[in-house]
Amino acid sequence: MAFAPHFKKAYWALAAAGAAYFVSLALLCVPWVQRQYVRCLAGINSLEITWADSRRALYAHNINPSFWLDPNDPERFGFLNTPDGERLYAWHVLPIGLYTKHEGPLQSETFRTAENFTKTAPFRMLKGDPESRLVINFHGNAGTVAQGWRTDTYRALSSGSTDKIHVLTVDYRGFGYSSGSPTEQGIITDAMATVNWALHVAKIPPERIVLLGQSLGTAIATAVAEHFSTLSPQPEFAGLILIAAFSDIPKLMLTYNLGGFIPILSPLYSYPILQKWFSTYITETWNTTQRLGSYVRNSAKVHLTLIHAKNDFDIPWKHSDHLFYVAANATSEEGLTYQQVESVKKTIDLGEAGWISTWNAGGNKLIRQELLRHGGG
Question: Nearest to residue 93, comparing CAs of 107, 77, 108?
Fold first, then answer.
């Protein structure tokens, strides 16, 4: 029986959509097309994928939805130098109580750019207080340190102690005013330079430093933590906090949707061979699974916190669940099954707020997961 005209139109529309999807995936395997594709989408969404050498898609460093804002408006910021010659734009966010107490002297400093940050009053306040604490914040992809709600995050982080908790956050190479172009190894170098500045220039002891990452920043923070866990003597940071972490980019792309609506590889769920084939074109994988396990095994002291929202539509909370298991397993020389971890971990049900699970391996290794019912993008 022939299709009615409206059914025939619907059929061909679906067929055309399917064909367009596969043509798009095929074209995205071509580096030149990838770069043009990202430029076209730049006004639509902050992208988080990469095939071949198209790093623009993963890092979206040229996408700035708040382009009308001037990051130089805040009172204090400076530049950090990397070992390979890049210059990084950074913010030092003072605790609100400390700023209020010294508002007059801070306002009297007339410079806008702190080329030599070590000579400024904010630096002296950070370095000179033996009780100061420092949160080194690694932000996600796209935009700058001044992006949208990121500024609210800095203030929330420092509100735990209104005159003691400082925040240092940096734009990676190629982001904002920072020089260079982003690569996985390059960004890890940037992050290590930032931590080294805190340790050796500001001279903040590691036990007073927390490494915190959000989204892409979780992979960066983990890579940095793993690097420092291999040093001797080994710096023991106060904590590693991962907010909306993912296991690695290839696995993330299996469920990731651009803008929460446009799927990348999830339509191929029934065709795992095709999914795996397209995944092989992802060159910068940000393998947090491997790095987190290595960090936990290497470290004499671990205070790890994973935070995720169940309604996070960009990065499913199951990624944090997986990383909790990876970290717990790394505390055992014999290895643990997923079922063993589930049966031993302690979980507190907070009702509508969510759950808190902890894994205490004894000694100095504590792993904590906060799973929230709400709060995702």
Answer: 77
Tokens of 237: 């940071």
CA atoms within 13 A on the CB side of 114: 22
Q: Is the pTM of this model over 0.70?
A: yes
Cα–Cα–Cα angle for 141, 304, 96, rounded to 5 degrees: 65
Distance CA 134, CA 354 (A): 28
pLDDT in tens, 73-91: 443 445 788 899 898 888 8
Per-residue pLDDT tens digits for 192-241:
999 999 999 999 999 999 999 998 999 999 999 999 999 999 999 999 99
* Alpha-carbon gap, residue 58 to 216, rounded angstroms: 9
Q: For residues 366 and 359, give the distance between their C-alpha atoms in angstroms, rounded to a whole number.
A: 6
294 compared with 37, residue with greater pLDDT: 294
The neighbour count for residue 59, using CB atoms within 10 Å, is 27
Sign of CA dihedral 324, 325, 326, 327: positive
Residue 310: pLDDT above 50?
Answer: yes
8-state DSSP, 265: S
Rounded (to 5) percent helix, strand, coil in the chain: 40, 20, 40
The first and second tokens of residue 137, run together, are 């914040």
3-state secondary structure of 227: helix
* Number of neighbours of residue 193 by Cβ within 10 angstroms: 18
Cα(273)–Cα(284) distance, integer angstroms: 20
Q: Look up residue 366 and give its amino acid.
A: L
- The DSSP line for 96-114 is HHHHHHTHHHHHH---SSB
Q: Where are the alpha helices (DSSP H) in 103-166?
A: 103-108, 121-128, 150-158
